Amino acid sequence: MPMTMTQKILADHAGLDSVAPGDLIEARLDYVMGNDVTTPPAIKVFEQLGVKEVFDKDRVLMIQDHFTPNKDIKSAELNKTMRCFAREHEIKHYYELGRREMGIEHVILPDNGIVLPGDLVIGADSHTCTYGALGSFSTGVGSTDLACAMARGVTWFKVPEAIKVNLTGVFDKFVTGKDLILHIIGKIGVDGALYKSLEFVGDGIKALSMDQRLTVCNMAIECGAKNGIFPVDNYTLKYISKTNPDRFIRSDYKVFEADENAVYSQVIDIDLSEIPLTVALPHLPSNTRKASECKDMKIDQVVIGSCTNGRLEDIGAAATIFKGLKVHKDVRCIVIPGSQRVYRQALEMGWLEILDDAGCVISTPTCGPCLGGHMGVLAKGERCVSTTNRNFVGRMGDVGSEVILSGVPVAAASAILGRVGTPDEL
Amino acid sequence: MKVSGKVFKYGDNIDTDVIIPARYLTSADPEILKEHCMEDIDKSFKERVRPGDIMVAGKNFGCGSSREHAPVAIKASGIALVIASDFARIFYRNAINMGLPILECAEAYEKINEGDEIEADFDTGVITDKTTGETFNAKAFPEFIKNIMASGGLVGYTGSELRD
């Protein structure tokens, strides 16, 4: 039976020749990841199970990013629980604040060369679907699933059917992968891909850098998808040759390709040249509009960062727009490089200096304001343009606050204009 | 297993940020989480909910984050069952793992009203609206899923399976 790319990875990790949509399989996991919010409950379950050791201390990852640097005493306790466990169990991928490897989970797992093509990864965070950009299968689970996977290195999956997203053409100036994924979510709705894979194909994928593909897959969950995935091409190989040269030279990764006659539940054709600079208005990521139609919306804050848009290219795009310009007097603009490495590279490129000159706040890597944690929580009645991934009621603070999602160019332009705007207005 | 109670009805796309806002995720204690369950869309939920009550909602219930705190908060608040047109994938899995009973039934969502007294039978999947007299058929879960829910979740189930 012909298979999609996702189905092939699942079959391979289940030790099966083939799988079909709806099959329940038990699959071997290459990496199992949790963060400072989801790992502590998993540790409690792990201890209840009476297991003494994790299945592989190099393959269980514990990343502090949500409420860190600790925002209060309770988050300090959560983080301490994870830190103590990581030390006791000699978890290889546990990073302290400030170390070069440290950062937001979905920024560092690809960027540190941990995840490679063909891998199967679960994480107790819904945006774990990010790594499909590398041609791997990854998806989010809860803390109990995490605990059981920490113990055994396997978990069960229901094999998903897939939606094929066929991309052609090239983007207009300033349009990025963020606009593409917002456009897709707006088109099919927040449950449009429920339980399914989103498989991206077509000549148009050449228009998407690796950072942009990571952004696209990151938000697959926002239309309900189990995972998003890109084929492995020269961009992928070039990327992993830098992130993990040892394994790249040894060809220690696996490239899966969808069968030509694979069955898809739906095919969506998208001409990238037709995608406008896009925003998602409150309070759903599917509530999309052309950014140019929302110019009367005044704003109080802009956030540039997160697991969606905190990568090097994103910080560079912000610096390009802010160069020589200032943040509007009524706006505070918070820029959060997604990892310590991104921070350092942006520093070396001179981008942080440009952002500082423009009047932006530059934060240590953290998820922080994206989920209303810290470093930019909104008051009642305040509105924020944000490059993050969710704009639900109360997501960034008070239930009476509003989040408008966008890509980096629109967010940066809006910070300068004091309202929703586009770079061509500057 | 049968449950019966009063209905709290909500719409489509009820996300985990409104079920339990992230500002409370510094605790995973059910007793603390239940104090804030649904507060961003239904401030009086905490005062009105009684043990055994039932939540009925539209499509894509539990969309958003992977936080297991969401089904934990609902269960701790006393809700005995969530019926929705359908569930977001991670919430669905977490609810089963946490032992929060759920059923999928779009027709029940359309016809059941806020405040109705309803009864649901897990063995058959039959939902009865005792206020209106109407019945609906949800798909019953396979035996092992029923056993997970009856054991209070995956951990209790795994423990009982290990003892057998």
How does this structure look, described?
- The complex is a heterodimer of chains A (426) and B (164).
- Chain A is α/β, with parallel strands linked by helices and 426 residues long.
- Chain A folds into two domains: 5-270, Aconitase, domain 3 (2-Layer Sandwich), CATH 3.30.499; 278-425, Aconitase, domain 3 (2-Layer Sandwich).
- Chain A is 31% helix and 17% strand.
- Chain A is built from 14 helices and 17 strands.
- Chain A has a five-stranded parallel β-sheet with strand order 15-14-13-16-17.
- The longest helix of chain A is centred in the first third of the chain and has 16 residues, at 73-88.
- Chain B has 164 residues and is α/β, with parallel strands linked by helices.
- Chain B has a single domain, classed as Aconitase, domain 4.
- Chain B has helices at 16-19, 30-33, 45-48, 69-76, 89-98, 106-111, 143-150, 154-163; strands spanning 2-9, 54-57, 81-84, 102-104, 117-121, 126-129, 135-137.
- A seven-stranded mixed β-sheet of chain B has the order 4-3-2-1-5-6-7.
- In chain B, strand 6 (126-129) and strand 7 form a beta hairpin.
- The longest helix of chain B has 10 residues, at 89-98.
- Chain B is globular.
- The two termini of chain B are 22 Å apart.
- Classes of the chains: A alpha/beta (426), B alpha/beta (164).
- At the A-B interface, helix 2, helix 3 and helix 5 of A face helix 5 and helix 8 of B.
Briefly say what this structure is.
The complex is a heterodimer of chains A (426) and B (164). Chain A is α/β, with parallel strands linked by helices and 426 residues long.
Please give the number of β-strands of chain A. Answer: 17
Distance between the termini of chain A: 54 Å
Task: Indicate the CATH class of chain B.
Answer: Alpha Beta
Predict the CATH topology of chain B. Answer: Aconitase, domain 4
First and last CA, distance of chain B: 22 Å
SS element count, helices of chain B: 8
Q: What is the total tally of β strands of chain B?
A: 7
Secondary structural class of chain B: alpha/beta
Strand line-up across the major sheet of chain B: 4-3-2-1-5-6-7
Residue stretches of chain B low in confidence (pLDDT < 50, at least 5 long) are: none
What sort of overall outline of chain B do the alpha carbons produce when their principal axes are compared?
globular
Which CATH architecture of chain B is right?
Answer: Alpha-Beta Barrel
Strand content of chain A: 15-25%
Q: Any idea of the CATH topology of the largest domain in chain A?
A: Aconitase, domain 3
